[in-house]
Amino acid sequence: QSQSGLGQRWLSYPRGRGLGGTSLINALIYSRGFREDWDRMPEGWQSNDLASTFESLEEKLNLTTVAPGPFGLSVIAAAKSLGVSKGGADHWEHSGIMDGARAAVDARTGRRADVYRAFGADRGNVVLIR
Questions:
Q1: The pTM is what?
Q2: Nearest to 102 by CA among 37, 33, 16, 45
Q3: pLDDT band at 107 (very low <50, low <70, confident <90, very high)
Q4: Are 27 and 103 in contact (CB under 8 A)?
Q5: What pLDDT, on a 0 to 100 scale, did the predictor assign at position 51?
Q6: Cα–Cα–Cα angle for 96, 99, 104, nearest 5°?
Q7: Residues 6+ apart with CB under 8 A from 88
Q8: Closest among 32, 22, 33, 14 to 114, alpha carbons compared
Q9: Got the DSSP string for 59-93?
């Protein structure tokens, strides 16, 4: 349906329908978000408050870094030619060129790490009801 706020264009907003929800269809890119954004949140929700929680989640997800493919390499080359600097290794750093993206792929199995597999399956804490 066209939207007036989008100049009468429509926006595709796919959602996952399965155990794990939209994490089943996402781009497999993992990001903590920007430190500056978290630091605008109330006390208890700022980046330093959440760092250990993110580390715990990242350990459970067992994330791996995925090397860019041909298209990604072209984007990196174009960015370098424009003088864009290399990004940092800090998990809060999102500026500059990254050599690879932290992907929600389990490094142990090579399978996508959706929410259900990471936090529900085989743990006995989820009961499925038909």
A1: 0.56
A2: 33
A3: low
A4: no
A5: 92
A6: 105
A7: 95, 96
A8: 22
A9: HHHT-EEE---HHHHHHHHHHHHTTPPBPPSSTT-
